[in-house]
Amino acid sequence: MTDSRDELAQLRQRIDGIDDQILELVSERARVAEEVAQVKAARGEAVQVYRPEREAEILRRLSDANPGPLSNEQVAVLFREVMSACRALQQPLTVAFLGPHGTFTEEAATKHFGHGATFSPQNTIGSVFREVESGSAHYGLVPVENSSEGVVSHTLDRFLGSELAIVGEVELRIRHALASHARALDEVERVYSHQQGLSQCRAWLDVHLPEVERLPVASTAEAARLAALDAKSAAIASEAAAERYGLPLLQLRIEDHHGNTTRFLVLGYGAPPPSGRDKTSLVVSSANRTGLLYQLLEPLARNGIDMTRIESRPARQQGVWEYVFFIDVQGHAEDEQLSEALSEVRDRASLFRILGSYPRAI
């Protein structure tokens, strides 16, 4: 027994020593980050503390070098927070997101920018765009599509009237919980959630709460707030939202598809240079004619460009039954092969705009 206690004490002593080394190295990294800002200022350069392509390169390099036992995802979380803290020393970032606090969008924003940023909740997707356009926020974060429910049309429509660019993307696994002050499922009389949350848990609700009233609200965070006011109500929300409003968790992982993932876009100004693993988003349109879509897409196929998504939306400033197409492709607009293909698409389109080339989600 004594030997076991001695061994445990030695292991703890080793951990203390390693922690001291980690602290020393993190502090050194922070000092170097401050020196980078000073050098840029001395050269008259704008201090751009968020470099999405640089951060993507760092995280991929560390993931490739990761010896374990931590997963690549865990390593990414740790180093995102280190980078976030170092960014804050140079220039604190304000990030607008579709609120209120406790939404999955805030969770995605925190995942991407870390806790060193200041997060500004907005009531609508349009408000997120306006905050960045006005300079009140450095960046914005909005949902664009869900793997089971499809595209967020408000986000796509807003791009048609905005000069903002896509400078990054975030993918977040959506894990819904049922939260309530009720002690058991048979005490629940109504369930609040965002319409997406209700849709993504429809099969679970049909089996476990088939007679319970389902009430759509503006967000999953708002659902948690309302459910906290009434012991006979429950919310479909994130664990973070439930914790924020003091709601006990009745059931975890109630989403119908456990691979359920939402993709978010980071909005800003500027164009990140290539990172090596990029994605390009564009919007194109032309006068409605036979073979229109084929003519617009043919240069991509002929040049071997991998198209990952296409969505059509009504072109509201054009004629009835005229459409614009939102397209995502693999690669950066500066890549030679993609650049040539996009040049051909531009020649064939009446509307052509690159919404952004940015690092793919990690």
Automatic annotation (TrEMBL):
Source organism per UniProt: Halorhodospira halochloris
Protein name: Bifunctional chorismate mutase/prephenate dehydratase
Annotated GO biological process: chorismate metabolic process; L-phenylalanine biosynthetic process
Site (Essential for prephenate dehydratase activity): T262
Positions in coiled-coil regions: 1-28
Record's function text: Catalyzes the Claisen rearrangement of chorismate to prephenate and the decarboxylation/dehydration of prephenate to phenylpyruvate.
EC number(s) reported in the record: 4.2.1.51, 5.4.99.5
NCBIfam families for this protein: CM_P2, PRK11898.1
